[in-house]
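Q: Predict the bound structure with uridine-5'-diphosphate-glucuronic acid.
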Amino acid sequence: MKVTVFGIGYVGLVQAAVLAEVGHEVLCIDVDAKKVENLKNGLIPIFEPGLTPLVQRNYEAGRLLFSTNAAEGVAHATVQFIAVGTPPDEDGSADLKYVTAVARTIAEHMTEPKVVIDKSTVPVGTADKVRAVMSEKLKERGVDISFDVVSNPEFLKEGAAVADCMRPERIVIGTDNPDAIDPIRELYEPFNRNHDRMILMDIRSAELTKYAANCMLATKISFMNEMSNLAEMLGADIEKVRQGIGSDSRIGYHFIYPGCGYGGSCFPKDVQALIRTAEHIGYQPKLLQAVEQVNYQQKYKLPAFIQRHFGEDLKGKTFALWGLSFKPNTDDMREASSRVLMEQLWAAGAKIKAYDPEAMNETQRIYGHREDLELMGTKESALHNADALIICTEWQNFRAPDFDVIKKALKEPVIFDGRNLFDPERLEKRGFTYYGIGRGA
Ligand code: UGA
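A: Predicted complex:
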């Protein structure tokens, strides 16, 4: 089946590559000519496990095509995905200018009926806007061609995007026209074989499902972070509490890991966007506001521990920092806790020697050259002569370090662990001062 995907960002590229992998003929359109050229040369703009060979293999097989030519994209297929970004605008609402621009482009060039699938995370009511924009354009052209707008939110996680997309837990389809479902069924048939993962609903419910899912997960995290603050003050260990409650199958173990705050391109943006949506319709979303506030505060947790330990003024201090990306297996640093941490420590006069397995280039891109930031080639080299070690991201190879090496390299054996990777008792026995999250520091 032929498919066109507008927007070669995270979601668009992964979805396109996975659709090509099962045999569809996918044409990706993007306005960024450099990105398109790079993709044709096998250069993938993001770090995502398994994505590079997947894209290269399907490009070489001629099933995955890249172009900047929107007219060609519209002519290519009946099914047209919109997978462009919806960045927050000034007040945190999702900015729909790229989504509506693609809708207008499709209407400008279409000569036969289309099924337009909204993959981007868009506020409730966007499908109506897409429909209105397209109708207006068609009217302007003086043509009457039918089309459907369908909401099909994406639930992939960075770092596991290819696997999530290959084996989706659910395929949410929102449509007000049952006839629009047939081509979508055919499209997703390879992913839907053994049992039906398709959940059909009206468009607005599908749009809200995406936000509700991310907001629920963010709520779980902020809840645990709030519990961790209580645990700390009450002399309890949040890691014991986590296991104690996770064993209740109604609660479960997923997404109840306390830490130094959630980041990334989705949770912070989507929680904020749903808050704005609610406020626009006159509803005060108190729970979501609290989720956001707790997360904001949580990012200041490690800097507060550090200043409690070393004093407010950190001039002359150097810290080893392990982990810069907002979570493991990605180089993405959007809304990463490491950024708040570094900026706080710099403001207090400290220097940082940082290491991340993937996000070094990204850190360089964001912060450029600074006297107070040294990017190190290995996690061990970051330790040398540092006053303490700070951990912001739970990369696998941080989990079992050689503590003797750490102790020898640091000026003082202090670890500030934003992801609770280690056992406080064992570390204390080895002579470390250990600060974890919610562990009676
Ligand atoms: C999230 C959702 O998990 C995906 O289902 C969704 O499709 C995606 O957003 C999206 O809307 O595109 P992602 O942002 O890639 O995916 O990352 P997550 O794995 O959800 O992690 C988000 C943040 O929460 C990270 O900073 C992570 O460290 C933090 N987290 C996660 C915790 O602090 N504790 C936990 O228990 C779990």
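A: The chain has a mean pLDDT of 96.
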